[in-house]
Amino acid sequence: MHGIRPRQKVVQANWIGYMAERAEKAHDGSLREFFATPLPSPDTPIAQVPMAALDMETTGLDERRHAIISIGVVPFTLDRIPLAQRRYWVVKPSRPLDEASIAYHHITHSEIATAPDFDAVLDELLAVLAGRLVVVHFRNIERPFLDAAVKARRGEGVMFPMIDTMSLEARMHRQTLWARFRRWLGRPPVSIRLHASRERYGLPAYQGHHALVDALATAELLQAQISYHYTPETQLKDIWV
């Protein structure tokens, strides 16, 4: 698992200022346009925020040694998921797939044989995400992998605020006094994985480890989390990271 890097901690305190600074300094045109597209202000109620659920399947957990092989994006709002706007790409990793990776995400050698490089879909991906608050389940995959992949191809990385549905579950089931008491009793921690989290809200079980399906599952999970534990007036700054 990857911890949050020091640079990430700095920018989280002022995402709007960080994005504006990157818009001025970015050399790549698509990155410059992405950063220049205004995001909602930190005090915007979540009900008014345009969002995009993002999921990636990778060949492993270390962005320094592994690569992205598929990307799913589902634009949505708190009350609507327009599936016609979904996007899905399979991209060719820089290293051959191994059998364990294939068994996990079910993307085969034949599927990636004619797949484009990540760089070929990056402009479209950035255009879909621009101006939307990105929602993921476990940011320590999507954030470092995307940053590393962009940096390798464009010479400069990409960082932006996210809502992490796993982090929201951790607040409620790993960081409360009751959760600490359970640990003191020696009981196992409550699972905050995507499937287990959805199950707590009565959401249907989906086939996991498919980037587009998991992106949809993450969008639905956030809608449920806000409904159960927050309100439509909850400000963005209270839940983004």
UniProtKB/TrEMBL annotation:
GO terms for molecular function: 3'-5' exonuclease activity; nucleic acid binding. GO terms for cellular component: cytosol. InterPro entries: Ribonucl_H, RNaseH-like_sf, RNaseH_sf. Residues 50-231 form the Exonuclease domain. Pfam families: RNase_T. GO terms for biological process: DNA metabolic process. Keywords: Exonuclease, Hydrolase, Nuclease. This is 3'-5' exonuclease. It comes from Vreelandella venusta.
